[in-house]
């Protein structure tokens, strides 16, 4: 018995020894040397930019181009008839990426890196504008604060959100260049801080114009224009916030990997085609392809499709698919080939362009909100910039022809129409702007199922009514019915 007792003691001692050995250096053994323990802003930025821009371009293809009648559908036509249901891509993508945007800001603030802080504020502002312009009142001040035990964020009013956006962009303008760190991981501007600063101020002008029906934004807009040294804005197309995609994977233009069948469901809208033909506008050849039946002939034809047709009428329009124009070559490469440099320069991921800014300033000047420059000058510069972006020469006499020649009596309509053309396939911005201005004048889709009304927002995700019921219902009570016809604050 004594021998067994001694063996038991020995085994217990060995067990304790082994247990201690297993615990020693436990953290070192279970740490992957190939995975960083800390994250820096340059590691987070590429995916923030890529994923958010790609989501916007995807939404442009599926909803934005259609609702604003730049394109139309000939198969699976629910979107074109306003039978939308939930559209959660913007919501999910922006809030998911907002966590990393906050991380970039926090990490950069601790490191004293003002340029990264500025980029974070610009991205946050753009992303939150997309969410609020799509849905209305949304979580903002308490968003993405789960780590601080805020699991049920309140929905802020759109007015509060826009005040925050404009404040953040102003702060970003102050931050840029105040420290000297080189910006890495910037796939939009390649680390050019001055271009980020121009974007911050150009976005300020966009968002000031967005809320211009709600308050006097003239002094704020004029203050930006009065001090170009401190508050620079876009000066040319080279300043465009437009993501240049790679010619091959992994970062191609999102549509390049679509199935040919999915691509063929979408055609040029008759609304856009008719307007471009009215103006003898060569951008038609960029936005669309000749009908398959006329391709390669001496007289190629460009035929648009009316929006909102039912399935049978859409597929049979004008004799069938061979007699309707598909979307232009820059936006889809048949056979998954390699796009040319010129095609890549056009099919970009758009945040904002110089042409858009010129039309914003044209409207501001026409309304007397700013006194720097004339509405006519800005308007014509916007047209010129759009032609240059789409690699087309401005035809002789284009600016002097009826409908295009600047006229104070119809200036706002002209500005809105040319801005709509320039915003072709640029995300949701054309839809947002049309809701504010009602230009160009659009007629609801022919066989729409929305009471002959063009939608003006997305409905809230159903998950919000399960997970954040009290707050989303408060927003609905304040804003109006949760449907696609309830106008957001700046549109009321």
Automatic annotation (TrEMBL):
CDD domains: SusD (cd08977). It holds the Pfam family SusD-like_2. Residues 1-21 form the signal peptide. This is SusD/RagB family nutrient-binding outer membrane lipoprotein. InterPro entries: SusD-like_2, TPR-like_helical_dom_sf. It comes from the Bacteria. It comes from Rhodocytophaga aerolata. Keywords: Lipoprotein, Signal.
